[in-house]
Recover the amino acids of this structure.
């Protein structure tokens, strides 16, 4: 399967056998990956970038997937990793690490950044659910980081069972019936645990609302 990757910063498209290469493990290894990165840094060498992309894109995707990243997200982050290489090639220092290690580090950092953004979005969603009927007053606003820290602290006070239903119902968007089915518990138990959990969260976050 051939994947066409548009690279706006480079002004061209790369045709690369991402999935086939990942499965075969037979993508040609660049003669000198360090030199290719340096060529990109010194002269924006598109041929060097194409060779790096063909070699590293499937490997970065595989690395991320082995770490538990879903395939679609792994592919997106792999492409973002290589575009970061294009933009920041001048920062590469072969005396500190080889190109492969440097690129893998970029990929891991992007995955960590994505996870942090996702976590912040989930914490904000919990607060929004609690705050649906209580509009914010300008003189009562707190910083997003303080709010998120308070929400995290309040969530740690839930029992394991209560946290699980909150996670499924509010953070992952399952219906109450779906939560009951996934946890193999009665629907009434799901609703009861949610009521107790939300009462706990409201008590601990009342001054933020």
């Amino acid at each position: 399967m051939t994947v066409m990757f548009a690279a706006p910063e480079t002004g061209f498209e790369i045709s690369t056998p991402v999935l086939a290469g990942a499965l075969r493990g037979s993508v040609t290894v660049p003669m000198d990956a360090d030199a290719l990165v340096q060529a990109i840094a010194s002269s924006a060498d598109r041929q060097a970038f194409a060779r790096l992309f063909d070699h590293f894109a499937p490997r970065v995707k595989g690395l991320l997937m082995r770490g538990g990243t879903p395939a679609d997200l792994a592919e997106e982050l792999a492409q973002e990793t290589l575009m970061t290489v294009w933009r920041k090639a001048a920062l590469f220092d072969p005396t500190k690490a080889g190109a492969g290690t440097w690129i893998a580090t970029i990929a891991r950092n992007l995955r960590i950044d994505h996870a942090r953004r996702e976590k912040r979005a989930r914490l904000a969603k919990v607060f929004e659910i609690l705050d649906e009927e209580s509009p914010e007053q300008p003189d009562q606003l707190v910083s997003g980081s303080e709010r998120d820290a308070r929400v995290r602290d309040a969530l740690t006070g839930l029992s394991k069972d209560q946290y699980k239903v909150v996670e499924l119902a509010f953070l992952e968007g399952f219906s109450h019936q779906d939560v009951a089915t996934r946890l193999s518990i009665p629907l009434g138990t799901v609703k009861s645990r949610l009521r107790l959990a939300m009462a706990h969260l409201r008590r601990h976050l009342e001054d933020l609302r």
Notes: Residues 1-8, 10-30 have pLDDT under 50 and may be disordered. Strands lie at 3-7, 12-16. The chain has two domains: 3-118, 131-208. The chain is about 65% helix and 5% strand.
